[in-house]
Structure formats: structure tokens, C-alpha cells
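Field reference: sequence -> structure
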Amino acid sequence: MSMVRDLALADEGGRKIAFAGRRMPVLSALVDRFAETKPFVGQRIAACLHVTTETANMCRALVAGGAELSLCASNPLSTKDDVAAAIQRDIGAEVFAIHGCDRDTFYRQVQGVLDVRPTVVVDDGADLTTTIHNDYPQLLDDIIGGTEVTSTGVLRIRNMATDGALRYPVLPTNDAATKHLFDNRYGTGQNTIDGILRATNVLIAGSTFVVIGYGWCGRGVAARARGMGARVIVTEVDPIRALEAKLDGFEVMPMMDAAERGDVFVTVTGNRDAITLDHMRRMRDGAILANSGHFDVEIAVADLTDAAVERRELRPNCVEYVLPSGPGIILLAEGRLVGQSAAEAHPAEVMDMTFATQALALQYLVANAGRLQPGIVEIPRAVEDEVARAKLTAYGVRIDELSPGQQQYLTDWRVGT
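Structure field:
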């Protein structure tokens, strides 16, 4: 049985899904194609994703393609209850997602999608994949493969593959250029700022804005903050990324130094303890902490909670913790994904490319069932090119093509100076 807050919310959710769909032309074209070709007939797809309007449009594509689809949330605060209701009622997927649920309910939702005995796994953070391997190995024989859409999830999947634990092929959607160059950089950059503004209404211009981690998501956050007038500091552990941040014009320093100078702090590392209690003790009174990594481990929330002598809810998704030494630390969205929890998630325009890439990767996976070996299977470049060309066409942009002579030159080693 599905788990949604209230099916009566479906009308409102349906309007939002339709509005997002109008800005997702590549995925909309795939809905029409899949409705004719039915590439997913006979497949039981278990998906663990942020339950948003953009996700709903990918669900529409998979169901149009003949899939039996079950969907659970990949984050309890990112679920939009009206959207979940509309996916259940109007799109035809079985949905297990309730906004703000506790941890036990969250994993009951994961169990709900696994009850279909999936043949295909669509993951965002690797919770389904790790749960299957750890707790439900009896399901592995039916699974032909899966996809993983986020940076943190791909890291977990790669670690499984390195350990020899991954028992089916997984296509890392996040590694596709049509995902991380746009979704991570422009989507995370925009929705992180959006979440901070909705939770605090703080003025970004003139603030000192600390970005912890300079991967594609960190690049996007730093660029958006600078564009709004902030003085941006970057902290990193990777010397190449730190050097890139320096040459991009940002100040680079250790986190312990940045802690004393920042007004707003955003973690985008994919790792735990990017902001520790020791860092917080050095911060100014009123420092704002937000996380834009997938899991809520990047800020030491438990340590902050234990150390605080007072807790005050200032606004929705905005709680102040007063430390014994005096500073009040303002934590947004419980340390969870701030752009998903306090705002509207990624814009539809970038998720159009992410979910089109995901849908075509799933089509490739199903078409090659039994021929792909367990482990990481890279998404074919042809899939990325198809998505990029379709997006350019939707924007009304034309580009050049190589002439036969240029093509020959690029493949010929004999021609030199």
C-alpha cells in the first residue's frame, strides 16, 4: 500500500507538475517516444528520489514506457506532499513519501518500494542499493541493474565496486556531463541560495560567504553568492580544487580560519564533519550554517545540539543554538539539503537534462540486460550528445558541424606541422 500524506492534495500537485513539464522539453519528448516504443514493459522499477515536480515528470516518462514504478523519497524534508499525491493518483506510480517523516517511517517507505521485487533500481544517494545488498540479498537475482544520480551516491557505489560488493551493473548518471555540469553547478548553485533566502531573508550582498568544498556544486554556490555581492571564501582539502578556486578569484584558507570570518557557511563536500563544533565555537554570533550535500552529516548537528544551552526556532527551517561560550549558531533545515528542504529544489530547466539522461540510461540498461557486467558502467557518450543536442534545439540554438576534412584530421596521426 502507498504512503502519501493526503490524496486530496493531488489537484494542486498536478498543476505544479504540469508547470514544470512545460519547461522540460527534452523529457517531454521522451514521454511521447516511450509511449510509442514501450522500452520498459515487464520492468518493475524501484526509485528512491527527491519527490518534486521535476521527478514527477520523469516518473511520467517511465510509466509511459510501460514500467511498473514504485517511488520513495531520498530525503524526508524534500518531499512535496501535493506532488506525491499527484504522482500516485494521476501518473500511476506507487508512492511511499511523506514530508517530514521520522527515520523509522523513512525506512518503511524504502521497504515499500522493495516489496515490488524490482528488476531495475533508480537511486539518489544509494540508499536503495546499499539496503538491497545489506538486508535483502534475495532480491539481487531479479535485478538487471540500476542508475545513481547524485555525487554522494556515486561515491558509495564506487566504494562498493572497489570492495567487490556490487552485484549488478550501475550507470552513474552524475558522471554524465549533461548532469553534473548543469544540475550540480547551476541547479545546486541557485537552489542553495534560494533555500538560504527563504529560511532567513538575509542580505547576501556585503556578507562573507564561506563555501566548504569546491566540486561542481561548490563552484555553483560560490559563483551565485559572488554574483549577489558576497565576499566568498572557499575551503578545500584537495590541492587541485583549492588552486582552481584561487585562480577563479576566491579567497582560499583552512576552515578554522574561515570560521572566524564568515557570516554564512555552506557545506558541499559529500563528506562528514565539514563543520565541527570546534569550528562553531570560533564563529561570530548569528553565523548561519547550511548544508547542500546529500546527507545530513556534513555539519556536526548532534554535537551542536548536545553543546547548546538554549534552542530557539526563529523561522521555518531556521533554528538558533546558543553555545555556552556565547555565540548563537543558526542552523538551517536541520542540516539537511537546504535547497531541497527550504526551497523548491532544482529548476526544471536543468532537471530536464538530468532526467532525460537518466531515462535514456535506463533504456540502454534494459536494452542490454544480461550483457553488462556487475560494477560501474559508464553512460554512453551518444546518450549525452542526444540530450545536449535536444536541449540546444529547444533553446533555438544551432551549432556548427565538422566537415569531412576536419573529421579526418582529428583521426589522422600522419598530419603534423
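Note: The CA atoms of residues 27 and 84 lie 19 Å apart.
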